[in-house]
Amino acid sequence: MNQSILPKLGVGTFRLEDEVAYQSVMMALEEGYRHIDTAQIYGNEEAVGRAIRDSDIAREELFVTTKVWNDKLNKEGFIDSVKESLRKLQLDSVDLLLIHWPSPESGEPMDEYLGELHRAKELGLTKYIGVSNFTIAQLQQALKILPEGSLTNNQIEVHPYLTNEKVREFCVQQGITVTGYMPFAVGKVLKDETILAIAKKHNVSAAEVVVAWELAHGLVTIPSSTKRANLATNLKALELTLSAEDIARIDALDCNDRQADPDFSPKWDI
Ligand SMILES: NC(=O)c1ccc[n+]([C@@H]2O[C@H](COP(=O)([O-])OP(=O)(O)OC[C@H]3O[C@@H](n4cnc5c(N)ncnc54)[C@H](OP(=O)(O)O)[C@@H]3O)[C@@H](O)[C@H]2O)c1
User: Fold this and answer.
1) What is the whole-number distance in angstroms between the Cα of residue 217 and the centre of ligand 1?
2) Which of 53, 78, 156, 243 lies at a 20 to 30 A Cα distance from 87?
3) Which residue CA neighbors atom 34 of ligand 1 most closely?
4) According to CATH, what is the number of the domain 3-183+218-226?
């Protein structure tokens, strides 16, 4: 699977509500982002949709991802929930539809909800399908259920304090693209001394170094920001090339410091 299916840098929207979400997405689009990541559980699909509409950017230029929440991972609710997401987003289809967590609320089996995910694609509600927070064992199971080549993406937490190499390597072997979420560990890694030293050497910000590190590993990444200046800075990372030594020094910061670990998390690959 070609990693270039997804624009390599997108903008995240977790925690952003109503007007804040609207402004963040609007500023991101004005600054040049064309890839937006939302989810049913973020409660901001309506605000994201308004920003997309008001931006007047042609639909085909945009790459929009949303994710189906745990309570809809069943035959009864799945497709209707996707149609509701599309109504809020004011779109006929999304580019990528993900299973947000491998954690159906009522314990439905994977073949049931992945069957619905595939059906969403067949109905034209999404161009590509994927998963999020899936472990290697769960990906192996998913690959057996879904038609060959249809599992396009696994969105997982990746930042310098959680490099998640095992899952990433498995995805590469299987041709599944990887999106690294929470690239800044919600700001934590931006204070790291090693990252600050590398930033100083290149005369750039810590945020640029971290985004460039994700991209250097062939990951797609989706940092979020409520500030225009930070959105612009993160985009500038596309121009930064890190040395092999810089990359190795950042890789060595891995300390399995996971930020997103709710009680319904799977048994993570360490
Ligand atoms: N699939 C999943 O389960 C899952 C889970 C979590 C997240 N995600 C996705 O991943 C996206 C990113 O994760 P996240 O938003 O949680 O965390 P993040 O992107 O790691 O960090 C966001 C934080 O970094 C700050 N920031 C952004 N750019 C900055 C810059 N240039 N300089 C200094 N600070 C900067 C932001 O503050 P300001 O607003 O002040 O700039 C915000 O507090 C989410 O929005 C969501 O779309 C997916």
Assistant:
1) 19
2) 156
3) 187
4) 3.20.20.100
